[in-house]
Amino acid sequence: PIYKLLLNKGFKVEILNNNWVAKNQELEIIAESIFELAGIIMLRENKGKNWRVNDNEIDEYLDFLQKNDK
Would the pTM count as exceeding 0.85? Predict the structure, then answer.
């Protein structure tokens, strides 16, 4: 399960005020679900500290969804 994966990556995982929280020595991530939490951690691992998407990336994603009727 994702919970075990996050523990193996060195995160302490808890639920606070209906939010999932993962903490390690260098960061704290808060999300509404464990799936979102894992996704944000994956983005951070792959993109580094500048993990947030930019407007162009959002536009590309919206175009993808529109082309695929989602």
Answer: no
